[in-house]
Amino acid sequence: MIRRAQREFCDVRILLQDVSPVRARLKLRGRWRQYEIAISEVILPQARIYSYYALKGGKVVVGFDNTADNEVLRKVYGSDFGKHQYDLIPHKHGPEKQTCEITDEMTFDDFVNWLHNNL
Question: Which of 9, 16, 27, 43 is deepest in the core (most CB within 10 A)?
């Protein structure tokens, strides 16, 4: 992922890279066109937690992640959302996180392709 980020983005900075037998974590930032790109992944034996964001002027333009989000949990589970606080549900945030929609799982390559096709 780091090599692809360095090919696709400018000014790539690795903020965190930590690998152990039980998990791998990576956080990086870079620039793509006029956007700041913020990437985070945590790989665990049982799950992959991710967030891929494009920002402009410090504000979210678009973001894809699967981290716990009460708005998403309410959409999926209704009033029982509290029982599912740790469920990983892929979703997309629109500009300034004003909109949120359920999506398919996203990979880093999917995100890069989305950028090329949509921004």
Answer: 9
